[in-house]
Fold:
Amino acid sequence: MSLNPAQKYPDTIPAIDTGKVMGLKRPLTLAVAGNPNAGKSTLINALAGTRLQVGNWPGVTVEKKSASFEANGRKIHLIDLPGTYSLSPYTQEEIVARDYLVQEKPDVIIDVVDVTNLERNLYLTIQLLELGLPLVMALNVYDEALQKGYVVDIKGMEKMLGIRVIPTVATKKTGLDELLAAVTELADHPLPRSLKILRYDQDIESAAAVVAGHIQADHPQLAEKYPVRWLSFKFMEGDEQIIEETGLTPDDAAVTQAVDHLIKAHDSDIESIMADARYSLAAGLTQEVLKKPELRKIELTEKIDRIVLNRWLGIPIFLGAMWLMFKLTFDVSKPLADWLTAVTTGPGKRWAAALIALLHGPDWTASLVTDGIMAGVGSVLVFVPVIFAMMFFITFLEGSGYMARAAFVMDRAMHSIGLHGKSFIPMLLGFGCNVPAIYATRTLENTRDKALTALLVPLMSCGARLPVYIVFIGAFFAAHAGTVLWSVYVFGIGLAILMGLIFKRTLFRGEAPMFIMELPPYRMPSFRSLMIHTWEKGKHFLIKAGTYILAVSVLVWFLLNLPWGVTQKQDSYLGRLGQAVAPIFKPLGFGTWEASSALISGLVAKEIVVGTMGEIYVKRAEEEKKAAPPTLTEDLKEIGTSLVMALRNSATNVFSSFAPSSLSTAEDESRAGLKTAIQHTFTPLSAYAFILFVLLYMPCAVVAIAMRQEFGTWKWFGIAFGYQMVLAWTVAFVVYQGGRLVGLG
Amino acid sequence: MSPLGLLSPGEKAEIMAINTKKGCGLGINKDQCGHIEDIGLRVGKTVEMLNNGGGGPILLRVDESRIALARGMAMRIMVEREVL
Structure:
């Protein structure tokens, strides 16, 4: 095995501590590995500061953090591996981490270890050491360990593991210089002795030797590419991914014999034998180097958990937290959304029209820009504050540690629909936007859970459907806005439970999954990480608004204005299409071509329903008010002052009364025209049926793409599409016809 | 020996056996092979019950981490109560 970095880079200049003297030194790539909650993120933040970049690992939605910076006069490239408990390929995170280490061979691995869970962390360390790469251990949360009265024999650990062990406190930025020094030292000075190999018991080692011999003799190209000792272990364990990747098969009788012998000797299966061997080593080491005090204080996290996870209080607290989140989301974002509407529909449109007039563009271009693009995108842009506010609160719940508790509390209820508590997190994200929710099903371990969760996610009413509700609720149920809106969300949840029960008995028969999850300690997430993750989540929506919705707005405008010279919108392509499908919606109470056209355009993204309606009804609205246009300076002044007002309102809303009042307030002028038009063509009953139809019919096109990406097949989206169309029609039919029977509407 | 799932909050116990289906070392089904041990639950480990409230999952303390575990799985882990 030649994994020693000096051989990879023979021209490295030896010795001398300060990097400056040598001028240019080769840049280093460092991979940070460790258990979830070991403090990896904090350590990386502390090392990289503002240079941190957040993205995704290619092809998967596991978050990837990286940073490039200079330390001691040399370039350092830092890669954060996903937090894992082991390197066995059971989860996406484990596969990502292991593939990176095996294929990219970073110069040094920084193994972040939580001293307070030393044994479990060492289990991963031992697996990392099997890879034979240079490794430095950051013994993190060291201050807490000392506080708790732990005594750690660091020298002993270094000796036994054959690596440098540096105590760090990432939160206080202590130990970081020593850590970087140790890392560069290791990269520049290949260890004088060969890398220490931790030996398992004799049976395992001799079996591994046989396998290694076979690999080296028959597959020299694999011996080049992979660390042989590690590959031998993986081969013995029958690691499916590695066997597939390498094409190794136990064609050598000696190999099968060696493994069989091992299994017989231990009377267990090979994976257990290996896991036991690694754990024994980890447990033994822990016993040698760590002394814990007899008595242990009860921590704050445990005290909070006693209340939050209480058998009786758990669910009420959870529901309260959800209610507060929704309340705050709308209170904070509403004034800003109103301001955005006012700007885009008022001055924005006037300026665009003026600009086109200035350029002598033909009339139709002015209409395309103002009625098509600005009305369409504008109507969606107003939801940016709502989406970002909701993503902010969801990020906060995740970062603070409460989200994991929500999964715990909801596990029992989720079990009844064939899922476990972890599936609840994607469902909850679905209220913000279904797209990240579909991607979040990654965190579930098997396809059954993922598919069932993804099928139910679209029933969680996302932020994009909200504009439709708001317009219709504003037009018909202004007095009871909060209650009606609440009922729509509850309706979705109720149907998700019902569909879950149905799916559990049809498509997803078999054993319900098991729940196992670590609950992290509570902590206050840093403002910066809140901002980064809110942006990461909200970005999807912005991209959607900037691409799909823009394109569809233009398309809808053309469909509404073609064939050329069409005067009545009813005769346009979209109008004709709407007329053609209108009879389907007739029994639901909204069989008009306007409603049908809007629903068709909403197949792409539900926000567009309102945009299309706006375009269809825009003529009528305009006729209703004509006033002298204000001047540019007046406009600018207005925009400025109204923004200040809006910011002030969102701040005060948070502290003001806790009744869901903000939804019913402020009939904005721009929508007044649309609302009047709706009031002419709908009844309160058919409006409610329409709202429910919008809630339930097909998830948007982006969700379709997300589902295709996640599952690699259109199958699950096809099922979602089919069942949702049927469900939407049935529910709207029952509500409308049932309502008429009892004399409503 | 008794199943882990029958401990009361505050009780500590040592794990004696993890009874799982044949053919898979550690988990209940293939997908969960390894996961129980990876997260720190293994034979010989002492754990403390933190929350055992009726029908839902249980909450354990393993060293300084809190592990939530499905009740069904907890019933298949046999433990020896620590005598105080």
User: Anything to note?
Assistant: Residues 314-358 of chain A form the longest helix (45 residues).
